[in-house]
Design a protein that fits this description.
four-stranded mixed beta sheet, 10 helices, binds coenzyme A, Peroxisomal Thiolase, Chain A, domain 1, 13 strands, alpha/beta
């Protein structure tokens, strides 16, 4: 079996930067409450005319350029989103046309905030078996479309954005070493959109703290490694306290964890690839590093990947 890895990354984080203070005008909340409970200082809301497919397209273009590839080399496009432009057609079909990826199949998947991890794992199966050579995986959300701006429990937590990655074959000592995907539908009522987001924050928090840590430990064990081998952690950016709990389970120092939640809030499926782009640019992720990505979300679902970075 071939090794599958990630190369070529891109993101889209443009829009209106909205501070916590802005919510004080309309909700019984405060900058202090939001910061101390979540680590969020601001979020970005995409411009009105920018939809999920637009953000996906721009992130994908950047990922293709970063991988030095043309769109017609793609065999498959997977977009993970809970805020697609339409019920159908899929976001992946829309960007297939716009990118000119004429040889690519296209599908959207829904695994909420764990969606990027689900997408990369799905892509990796095609790569490992040799069925496909290059898969574009996008996590993109315009959550501002489904936020209830009258609900302080949810309105302050989320933001918009997109991230994209090319998944393809890598050398034997790089790429995915282990993964875990999981679901517990018994917790489905704790966070849903019908049509606006509703959430039982405390229940989601308890689940997330336990599951993020457990998944991190399972990933290193499945890869026949130990937590001391982990070089960098990229957790889903929902709440700094949940992220810190995962970091503490791995006993990693602060500087070895990606943290962008203060700038973007929770961008659901986009949060992990956006964080990867930023930490790669900051030089925090280096060739050969053992990187652990881990996410959780509505479903309830979770997913993680341990991989050696690089080609
Ligand atoms: N401003 C002020 N008060 C707020 C608030 C806000 N924006 N949002 C909620 N509260 C209030 C609640 O109404 C509740 O009040 P009550 O006790 O009178 O009912 C209280 O704060 C809840 O406090 P507490 O339980 O101590 O908050 P918390 O420490 O659990 O933090 C969350 C709340 C939502 C930040 C936290 O539970 C969380 O992050 N959960 C996970 C959410 C998540 O990650 N969702 C995305 C999944 S991908």
């Amino acid at each position: 079996m071939r090794q599958a890895g990630i190369y070529g990354l891109g993101s889209y984080t443009k829009g209106r930067q909205v501070s916590n203070k802005a919510f004080e005008e309309t909700l019984d909340t405060s900058d202090e409450w939001i910061r101390s409970r979540t680590g969020i200082e601001q979020r970005v809301f995409a411009d009105d005319e920018v939809n999920t497919s637009d953000m996906s397209y721009h992130a994908a273009k950047e990922a293709l350029a970063h991988a030095d590839m043309s769109a017609d080399e793609l065999d498959l496009i997977i977009v993970s989103s809970v805020t697609g432009d339409y019920k159908f057609p899929s976001v992946s079909s829309l960007i297939q046309e716009r990118l000119g990826a004429k040889n690519a199949a296209a599908m959207d998947i829904g695994a909420a905030c764990a969606g990027f991890v689900y997408g990369v794992v799905t892509a990796s199966q095609f790569i490992q078996t040799g069925t496909y050579d290059k898969v574009l995986v996008v996590g993109a959300e315009k959550l501002s479309k489904i936020l209830d701006f009258n609900d302080r429990n949810t309105a302050v937590l989320f933001g918009d954005g997109a991230g994209a990655a090319i998944v393809g074959p890598v050398s034997a000592n790089r790429g995915i070493q282990s993964f875990e995907l999981g679901a517990n539908g018994a917790g489905a009522e704790h966070i849903k959109a019908d049509p606006l987001i509703q959430m039982n924050g405390r229940e989601v928090f308890k689940f997330a703290v336990r599951q993020m840590g457990d998944t991190c430990m399972n990933l290193v064990e499945k890869a026949n490694l130990t937590k001391d081998d982990v070089d960098f952690l990229v957790p889903h950016q929902a709440n700094i306290r949940i992220m810190e709990a995962a970091r503490e389970r791995l006993q990693l120092p602060k500087e070895k964890m990606a943290a962008t939640v203060h700038k973007y809030g929770n961008t659901s499926a986009a949060s992990i690839p956006i964080a990867l782009v930023e930490e790669l640019k900051n030089g925090k992720i280096k060739d050969g590093d053992l990187v652990v990505m881990v996410g959780f979300g509505a479903g309830l679902v979770w997913g993680g990947i341990a991989l050696y970075w690089g080609r």
